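Thread: sanity check for a docking pose with flavin-adenine dinucleotide

Original post by kr_44:
Hi all, I'm comparing my docking run against an independent structure prediction. Below are the sequence and the ligand SMILES. Could someone generate the full complex and paste the structure tokens? I mainly care about where the ligand ends up relative to the chain.
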Amino acid sequence: MKNVSIWLDELEKKSFKRLDKDINVDVLVVGGGITGISTAYHLSTGDLKVCLVEKNKLMEGVTSRTTGKLTYLQENIYSKLVNYHGRNKTKLYLDSQKEAIKIVNSIIDSNKIECNLEKVSSYVFDYDDIESIEEEIKLLNDFGVDLKLSDVLPTGDNINTSYFIEDSYVFHPLKYLSSLVNICCDRGIKFYEDTKIISIEEDDDGYYICKSDDYNIRAKYVVIAVHYPYFLFPFLMPFKAYLEKSYIEAFKVEKNYKFSAINITKPIISTRYYENNKDIYQFYLTNSHNYCVKNDEEKNFEELFQCREEEADYVWSNKDIVTNDLLPYIGRINDSNIFIGTGYNTWGMTNGSLAGKIISDLILDRKNRYIELFSPNRKLNIGNFLKFPVALWSSAYSFIKTKVSKNKEWYSDRVRFEKRNGKNVGIYIDDDNHEHIVYNLCPHMKCSLIFNEIEKTWDCPCHGSRFDIDGKSIEGPSNYDITYSEE
Ligand SMILES: Cc1cc2nc3c(=O)[nH]c(=O)nc-3n(C[C@H](O)[C@H](O)[C@H](O)COP(=O)(O)OP(=O)(O)OC[C@H]3O[C@@H](n4cnc5c(N)ncnc54)[C@H](O)[C@@H]3O)c2cc1C
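Reply from moderator J.T.:
Ran it for you. Here is the predicted complex with flavin-adenine dinucleotide included:
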């Protein structure tokens, strides 16, 4: 069993050098996931000088661990959106998701991209909450969606009641994105890896000076496609969003039943098939939870394994940002020339692709009917905010737990905590008895960190930042390392 996503394991991709001098561009795209690469692709047909920088390696962030479904049936999101935003905006969201699927299809078609794209049926079902299923069916019928009903899946499994569409897709997200990267390179876009943007400042001419660890990039427009835009909104989490984490396994099966499915109540169960030239895999995702609530990764993976009898070939986990009004934040920040795309509520294959189109349309001064819907400047909805205490409390609970009890049950014999030079440090001792020392404080909101025995990382139990054993930041919110130095 491999502890890596099947997409990353199969991918052969180019590598790119680190930024090695100061440069000037029209557009700087920060972040090499689906949002950043889609934006670069849409800008690549114009005359603008564009570059994309990635702090680690391209396509190794959240996008590398998705299940790769392209569908507009996203649990029962439409009944929830109606409560928050009314019918018109909800219908517009539905249109946007259909359009995102068209955009991806048309890019694949016109560039003849080989990315295992398959048209499949997309099911939403539930064993218990029949009322919510019926509510969603009624709404989607009102919106004119061609829904079919069924009480069994194509595998013959009984699921009480479900609805499905026949025009959804699954694909290999990283094969798709690496083709976009190749096309962008051919069209003159420059990519840099191992280049982290740590600050953005406006100069007197209205340009932005974006500082990386070593060099500066001067840009007229900056696209922040970093999943969690920490250096702009350190407090997006926990006040406007929380992290949802899930666990996935892929195992070989005999037949590709050509459907994907998801239920609507916890524990979320999601599945799809993936067929390469050699084998057919079924994916099984479950155990989704607010990241702050369940921090014991060994137990979380164990719960995944208990769901199936089959031995998994691949196992991995992933987390995504869920916003408090269930709409992504995509677009221009106030009147500036800084743009963001984030908060996809676990539907980033469509929303990240759409973000690329919306942001490039904004930069190129083109019309786009979804600009207002996803505007990052929309007001924090106080009603939703009051419904959001679970996220706030769970962050606060984790924060207190790390400070007060130190949660001994989370730590093994290979992990120690000490004070060095007056600072709290965490020490991990590797197989060769070598000590790896880090500052044990998350730069985001000062939670103490816990050691993740499965993935060998230091994780923040409050908001999900992750660092490698030597303190290098792997995932946000925090953009900063926790590398220990003796000075
Ligand atoms: C379990 C799970 C399953 C999912 N399955 C699906 C699905 O089937 N269909 C679907 O539509 N969506 C799915 N999603 C959601 C989707 O995977 C994400 O929403 C999407 O991949 C997010 O893409 P991104 O480009 O915003 O982030 P990322 O892919 O994380 O890209 C951001 C990049 O920015 C880089 N970066 C960060 N900070 C800096 C910096 N300071 N300087 C330079 N670079 C930086 C990071 O290293 C990273 O590579 C799923 C999510 C989860 C959690």
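The CA atoms of residues 429 and 435 lie 5 Å apart. Hope that helps with the comparison, let us know if your pose agrees.
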